[in-house]
Amino acid sequence: MSDQPSPELRVVSLLPSATEIVCLVGGQPNLVGISHECDYPAGVEQHPILTSSKVDFSPSSLKIDQDVRALMTHALAVYDIDTERLEAARPDFIVTQDLCDVCAVSLADVERACAQVLPDTKLVNLHPTRWSEVMDDIQTVANALGVPERGRTEVAKIEARRAAITKRSAALGTRPKVLTIEWLDPVMLGGTWMPELVEAAGGDALVTEPGQHAPTLTKAELQKLDPAPDVVLIKPCGFKLERTFSERPVIDALLADLDWPAVKTGAIYVADGNAFFNRPGPRLIDSIEILAACTHPAEFADFTEKHKDSFVRL
Predict the structure, then answer these.
(1) What class, spelled out in words, does domain 11-153 have in CATH?
(2) What's domain 172-313's architecture?
(3) Is the pTM for the entire model greater than 0.85?
(4) Terminal CA-to-CA distance of the chain, rounded, Å?
(5) Contacts of 303 (CB under 8 A, 6+ apart)
(6) pLDDT (tens digit, 9 = 90+) per residue, 74-85?
(7) What is each CA distance from 169 to 134, 151, 289, 302, in whole angstroms?
(8) What distance in Å separates the CA atoms of residue 102 and residue 272, rounded to the nearest whole number?
């Protein structure tokens, strides 16, 4: 059995994490269309872009949140699908999701578009909320591409890396309390798979449980956290480092007057939330390494060096 998909297979991916998974299992040559947010690995940008956003990439997190909520209140889609380009792509299957209508094109919109122009195209729908489900999705995509053994091999590599980090962190004897923030204004905390990433990195996640969707907390609620965080990781969804730092006043206002150990010791980190953490795909394992470097910087100095361009300590 070949570990490369059939060259005749035509694949569309409508979310960045799925594109990374398709490429992981050898399907990059099979891509015939992607979303406007697909930017990794190198080379995917050459494919036709089939989606666009109705929300302007405002310099304000609060404005972005307000615009998205306004669209959702009126039952309007956040994203558009270019049905003409989709029809021209003639995919055998489309990888999509129904986890978050804010993060990517909704399953319902994809189904409507296919009903119009591609009634016979198969949909591969992903809905990961836990680490294990992300690994299952890698296998699901590999199966759809006709390379199940390639999927098993890649999942095994990722799981081996996670097991090695977990073994190192478990031997340390201390488990700092970790708070992860995935939106700045309003403040939303990391849920779904994030608590599991924190645990593997040697910390205890605050507030959220594995599989739980991101809760929104007020400043008053943050002030009352008990226990308070020893480490804070800020990684806004879809924001690269420079984009996050463009809202440094928002970060400073958020941290002001918080009597947290993390604030007192300066254990406040900002990471690339576009590439890591928020994409349920292969780079979640790199996200664990970054978390380990933040949670136990002395013990995981190798990960600090490895990912030095992807996170910074304030």
Answers:
(1) alpha beta
(2) 3-Layer(aba) Sandwich (3.40)
(3) yes
(4) 50
(5) 289, 290, 292, 293
(6) 544 567 899 999
(7) 22, 27, 11, 13
(8) 19
